Amino acid sequence: MEYSHSDAELIGQPIGYWSWAAYKAVVTRTRAALAELGTTQPQWWILAQVARPGAAMTRDEAIRVLQGYLDVGAQPLTAELDLVVDRGWVTEDPDGLLHLTAEGRAFQAEAAAVQDELRAERHAGIGDEEYLTTLKVLQRIIHNTGGQAWHH
């Protein structure tokens, strides 16, 4: 890959810009790929959480876990969860726990395959060690600036 600046120029570049540009590129690409499947990124998050082994959770628990993702908030997630239920992908049992339906499990698997393809696309030419270093540096920057970040 050819970089846009020399190392000497890059060292003085603002991390805020480059992290924002990476965020925008990744999220835009992810949302476009999920839209091709007929779903949204928040709907994917819900399906992925409900599909986790041993992760039985209620509607409120799912929203609490996910509301910090990309600053979505609880209200939009409630509407997205309603749509996932309306589509027949998730049901709520008498105890209020969320479960994937057979249709939901099949769709979640299809969306997970797309997410795997997207991850491979994003990681092309980037080794695990380099990726791990990048995430650790970003976490230090977040910590150094008093920010908070969490991902489940």
UniProtKB/TrEMBL annotation:
Q: Which domain of life is it from?
A: Bacteria
InterPro entries of this UniProt entry? Answer: WH-like_DNA-bd_sf, WH_DNA-bd_sf
Could you tell me what this protein is called?
Answer: Winged helix-turn-helix transcriptional regulator
| Organism this protein belongs to | Streptomyces actuosus
Taxon lineage: Bacteria, Bacillati, Actinomycetota, Actinomycetes, Kitasatosporales
